[in-house]
Amino acid sequence: MKDPIWKLMGMLYQSHPWHGVPIGDDAPEQITSYIEIVPTDTVKYELDKHSGHLKVDRPQGFSNICPTLYGLVPQTLCAGRVAEYSSRKSGKDNLIGDNDPLDICVLTEKDIAHGNLFLQAIPIGGFRMIDQGEADDKIMAVLLGDATYGHMQDISEVPEGVVKRLKHYFLTYKQVPGDGAPRSCEITHTYGREEALEVIQRSHADYNELFAGLEDLLTGMLRGDGEEQG
C-alpha cells in the first residue's frame, strides 16, 4: 500500500510522467503510457527527463509524421537487460541500452488532438530497433477498449500497411534528404506479443535497478528523517 504522504503529494503536485506515475498493476499485459506526440504534430515533442515537462525537441523539417500515438512507458529504462536481450535475439554483440524510457506506439481509431496525456494500452508486439549500437526497442500496442484495434492480441493482426508505415517512419525520421550519410539505425526484427512483454519486464527491471530506493529516499526527505532532534 502506497504511503499516505504520496497520496497527499499526488493531490497537491503534478507527478513526473517518468518517475511519479506507476507502470500499472497489470503490467506487462496492460500498461500505462505517456503520449508525447500525435499524428497531426508537425513538431517533435519529447519529455524533458529532468523537469517532467513536455518540450519541443525539434520542428519536423520534412514529411516525417508519426502515424500513431507515440510516447513512453513510465518507470522503464532501456539499459543492460534490454540490451542483452536485443543482442541475443539480433545476433549483434556489444549492444548497450540507450538509457531512455521504453518507447511505445499506440494504435487507435480515435483522433486525439494533443499529447501530454496518459492512457492504458495493451502491448501486441514491437520493433527490435538498433540505433548506432544502442538497443532502442519500439513497443506496439493498442488503446484499451478501442473499437477498431482494441480486439487485437498480436502484431500479426495489424494491417501490413500500418506496420510498414511505422517502420519507414523510424528508419527515416532522423535522416535529412540529400545528406547522403549512411543509415544510422536499423530494425532487425518485428516481434510479437510475448517478446514485447519480455522487453517491458526487462525495461522495468532496468529502471528499478537504477532508481532503487528512490521512493523511500524521497519519503524520508519529506518526513524529515535523519534530522537532528532539538
Class by SSE composition:
alpha+beta
Would you tell me the overall average pLDDT?
89
* Alpha carbon gyration radius: 19 Å
Q: What fraction of residues sit in β-strands? A: 25-35%
Shape: globular
CATH superfamily: Inorganic pyrophosphatase
Please tally the helical runs, counting DSSP H or I stretches of 4 or more residues: 5
Please give the CATH class.
Alpha Beta
What is the number of beta strands? 10
> Main beta sheet: strand number and arrangement?
5 strands, mixed, barrel
Order of strands across the main sheet: 1-4-6-9-7
Helix/strand order, N-terminal first: HEEEEHEEEEEHEHH
**Percentage of residues assigned to helices:** 25-40%
Gap between N and C termini? 32 Å
- Uncertain residue segments: none
The CATH topology assignment is Inorganic Pyrophosphatase
The CATH architecture assignment turns out to be Alpha-Beta Complex
Question: How many separate structural domains?
Answer: 1
Describe the structure.
The chain has 230 residues and is of the alpha+beta class. The chain has one domain: Inorganic Pyrophosphatase, CATH 3.90.80. The protein has 5 helices and 10 strands; from the N terminus they run H-E-E-E-E-H-E-E-E-E-E-H-E-H-H. Strands 1-4-6-9-7 form a 5-stranded mixed β-barrel. Strands 2-3 form a two-stranded antiparallel ribbon. Helix 2 runs antiparallel to helix 4.
